[in-house]
Amino acid sequence: MRDWMLEKPTRRGLLLMAAAAGASLAMPRLVLAAAGKSADAKFGGDLSTVRAAIDKQRPEAIKRLQNWIALPSIAAENRNMKEGCQMMIDLLKDAGFQTAVAMPTDGQPGVFATLDAGAPRTVGMYFMYDVKQFVPSEWSSPPLEAAIIDKAPFGKVMIGRGATNQKGPEATFLAALHALKAAGRKSPVNIVLIAEGEEEIASPHFRQVVHKPEVLAALKQCHEVYMPFASQSPQGGVEIALGAKGVIEVELVCSTKKWGRGSADDIHSSYKAELDSAVWRMVKALSTLVSEDGNDPAIDGWFEHVKPLTDRQKALIAERVAHTNEADVKKLLGVQHWVRDLGYRDALERLASQPTVNIEGMYAGYTGPGGKTILPSKATAKLDFRLVPDQTADDAAAKLKAHLAKRGYGDIEVSVTGGYDPTQTDENSSLIKASTSVYTHLGMPVSLSPRLAGSWPGYVFTGAPVSLPAGHFGTGHGSRAHAPDEYYVIESSNPALHGMAEATLSYVMHLYALAAS
Amino acid sequence: MRDWMLEKPTRRGLLLMAAAAGASLAMPRLVLAAAGKSADAKFGGDLSTVRAAIDKQRPEAIKRLQNWIALPSIAAENRNMKEGCQMMIDLLKDAGFQTAVAMPTDGQPGVFATLDAGAPRTVGMYFMYDVKQFVPSEWSSPPLEAAIIDKAPFGKVMIGRGATNQKGPEATFLAALHALKAAGRKSPVNIVLIAEGEEEIASPHFRQVVHKPEVLAALKQCHEVYMPFASQSPQGGVEIALGAKGVIEVELVCSTKKWGRGSADDIHSSYKAELDSAVWRMVKALSTLVSEDGNDPAIDGWFEHVKPLTDRQKALIAERVAHTNEADVKKLLGVQHWVRDLGYRDALERLASQPTVNIEGMYAGYTGPGGKTILPSKATAKLDFRLVPDQTADDAAAKLKAHLAKRGYGDIEVSVTGGYDPTQTDENSSLIKASTSVYTHLGMPVSLSPRLAGSWPGYVFTGAPVSLPAGHFGTGHGSRAHAPDEYYVIESSNPALHGMAEATLSYVMHLYALAAS
Question: Residue A362: which of B365, B369, B382 has the nearest Cβ?
């Protein structure tokens, strides 16, 4: 569910790549050995022993990730949930967490873990142990084998379900804790870590984990909640999203049985003349939800709590536009026109600011080859609604139901299958400041974006009662989340882009930066 | 495609059944031995030798039907078409047709056959040799085994694909020709028979067969075109439909590729804010095709050629209403309300007179369990449009396309996958008069209906240049056409309802009645 914008190449990223083209392809094991030139205490001082530990532990770090990928936990299929939860616990304990326990919910269990390093500062963290469904036959390399292959232009990548979403970055973070320990260092911060196993089904019970008294008490010690993520673009830039849209996923079912009109079952289509149709009813009901061109929500009161972009948010978008080649983005997305033929800046402002009503899928009646003259008794539509501040998931679901009921469609079943509120974090928070300083120190272009058009359950942390800054970003690169051949870069052939070892070191520096902030 | 109203019990039928309840269950082999009391020359005179032949040939008549069912010809799957055409030819020759040849078309071949009995009168006939698709796992008895089982309240029925639609009634008619021959009689009429193998895909090439010069020349000798059919209700009444609606089946495809907007492929749903949706476009386009309640066509000019019911047609419907228990019909159909809460008479008038726009099925995007946050690049809808006189299939398709184009939906692909014009036959034609006289002579309640709400390609005969009365009806009973466990009554336990042998005799009488008209 935590879903993402595709990587968009930035002009700065392209320049960096051009500069790198002349460099030797013989990479040192840790291409960043020469990066942080000064042994800046803010980022951990002289990290040579940590670097050496990362290099030494590389085989076991890779093996740890491969073992994890071999055990897919999929909440939608109720697959390996208990086992996946236990593996998460084992991985955390192995990395130095003194406590790590399963947290039962009405759904799949979460995990609550603490690492007490005796440090003055405590950092909150968010992990997920579940992955998206997959169809092995669609993969070029078996999704649970986590094979490492050459993939241009990146170098060596691991192919597997969860490789980048989210086991790869999480295992890389854990490798940082292992390296610190091997280098004889304590973690510079204490860690309060909360993990869930239902992220890919929209975190329906995650609040139950976070709102447990002991978890809330532990989070009270924290100044932020951070989730590792491989958010470098292929060219090396890091985008830090200051927020994400909320989302609700909804299944609408219109049936003659519930409606009490038409035939209770599918019937010969010749009867249409005297019988009502559940499919036409669905079409007409759906049609009321959006503007004529399908691009603006038209649900009663939908914009009541929608906040417009601030000047600063617009400025961030303008900056992005200035550094982006629109034609490249369009090509990457397979797009010729933005809605209403908007210019790129207006399109990106919509992307950041506009709530959406989307039909993910729908089906009714006969869907095989050719035709079949039936009058179907049922129609199903799957929708997602992206929400922006200050909309809430609960209010959106209530407004949708009220809108349909007001128009006489009260019999259409509305099942909210998952969702959560939007999340937003202040760019002046310690999390954003510290993170930005790390990436800048590493020589990476950093771009802030006001908000992801996609969604992740950060609201559980940014909203009451936790009310902390929260974000997920990081170095390294992976893609094809939710798709076949999901990958994560293990060894990068581009000095501007982190492989797993470089990203491991960056997480070490990140912890020091948070400790110092 | 030739599709039917479900049997609706008539009051007369129910009375007959009640009367029969006291009768002995020990049926003579031919329950009609005592029926046509007078040896009326009009119906073949003394038919005792023919009756004896039917009884004697019963095992081979059943076996012939079973062999035919064992070879399913399915045009939609291009399955056994050549073999099915050849079997049709063999069956006709075996029954006494002197000529029977395949008639190639741009699709599957038809058959043209003639039986010259040296009779003064020639009768046109229409057969089909194809059947509807089937899924064996859905059947309680294998659909190609044509097993004969006990089925209350009918007696012994044959279960198989094509059992009633249309191999059963056709094989029964052929059994009549075999019986005449065995009884030493010539057929009382010459027969010109045209068969097709694409009836179940809406007869896309049937005109090519009928309009061949030699076929048109042969049909010029005929006064009518008749298709055998088991059209007795379970209670024994025969309904003669004087016409049938036309139909076009259409597949609409809205794709971002063709449209040139949105993403060329499915993309993450977060992009909806800046990208157009093919599914919303389909919903909005479909919505323009019907009234707000989905019950009246709203396509530009759709009613231009629609003729209202005549007073006589309304009177026939009123008569039907007077003899029908509306509650029984509603129960049979699983219906609580007719559209707009109409009374039964108004509902039946709509059924006979109203053109319809029906969504048979539609699909787009993700249709599996749960949700998947994608913005689909394509939506498909399958529609059927029932047509009434004087609409035509070609004009309807043109109007649909013009309607969509006028509203800017010209990129939505409109594939007409099949269809044909409405058909209507005069109740004073020799076909209807002769047929009615047979059923009345057999003591069956006959009800005329102005028009089937379903469709069959009778227009090829009733329209120019052939311009003959055409109809399909007959004695016997079967049901579940197009559905699993399709059946045809072989031995009836109800004296009011014909089994295969009684129906065979009725076809003999039918030929004599046509010869005499």
Answer: B365
Distance from CA of A217 to the nearest CA of B (A): 34
- Residue contact B276–A290, C-beta within 8 A: no
The mean pLDDT of B167-189, rounded to a whole number, is 98
Task: Give the max Cα distance, chain A.
Answer: 82
Is the CB of residue A360 less than 8 Å away from at least one CB of chain B? yes
Query: What is the pLDDT at residue A481?
Result: 86
Residues pairing with B254 in the sheet: B379
Eight-state DSSP code of residue B464: T
Partner B, chain A 455-484, Cβ-Cβ below 8 Å:
455, 482
User: Do residue A146 and residue A65 come from a single domain?
Assistant: yes
**For residue A23, what pLDDT is reported?**
30
Selecting from A270, A287, A452 the residue whose C-beta is nearest the C-beta of B3 gives: A270
Residue B238 β-bridge partners: B232, B446
B80: alpha, beta or left? (left if phi > 0; alpha if psi -120 to 50) = left
Choose the most confident range, by mean pLDDT, from A18-27, B95-104, B366-375. Answer: B95-104
Q: How many domains does chain A have?
A: 2
| Among candidate residues A370, A405, A420, the one where a domain is terminated | A420
In a domain, A348, yes or no: no
Tokens of residue B192, six digits: 């010109």
For the stretch B198-219, pLDDT in tens is 998 889 899 999 999 999 999 9
Same domain, A64 and A187: yes
| pLDDT over 80 at B18, yes or no | no
Convert the pLDDT of each residue in B366-409 to its tens digit: 998 888 889 999 999 999 999 999 999 999 999 999 999 999 99
Spatial distance between the Cα atoms of B98 and B117, rounded to a whole number of angstroms: 10
Question: Which stretches of B126-252 are DSSP H helices?
Answer: 167-182, 206-210, 213-219
CA angle B196, B202, B208 (to 5 degrees): 50
| Shared domain check, A220 and A258 | no
Q: Tell if the CB–CB gap between B350 and A247 is shorter than 8 Å.
A: no
Alpha-carbon gap: A513 to the closest alpha carbon of chain B (Å):
32
A117 inside domain: yes
Q: Which residue of B has its CA nearest to A282?
A: B283
Whether residue B408 sits in one domain with residue B259: yes
B365 and A360 within 8 Å at the Cβ level: the answer is yes
Contact A355, A387 (CB under 8 A): yes
> What is the nearest CA distance from B29 to chain A, expressed in angstroms?
35
Query: Is residue A211, in this structure, part of any structural domain at all?
Result: yes
- The CATH number of the domain holding residue B433 is 3.40.630.10
Q: What is the pLDDT of residues B52-83, one digit of tens each?
A: 999 999 999 999 999 999 999 999 899 999 99
Residues B221 and B368 grouped into a single domain: no
A430 and A405 belong to one structural domain:
no
- Best probe of the B interface among A133, A138, A270, by most B CBs < 10 A, is A270
Q: What torsion do the CA atoms of B89, B84, B472, B209 make, to the nearest 10 degrees?
A: -70
Has residue A283 been placed in a domain? yes
| DSSP H or E stretch at residue B492 | strand B487-492
Domain that holds residue A178: 28-243+425-516
Mind telling me how many Å the CA of A491 is from chain B's nearest CA?
28
What is the pLDDT averaged over residues A278-300?
98
Nearest to A273 among B4, B287, B351 (CB): B351
In the prediction, which pLDDT does A30 show?
Answer: 55
Of A401, A420, A439, which residue is a domain's last? A420
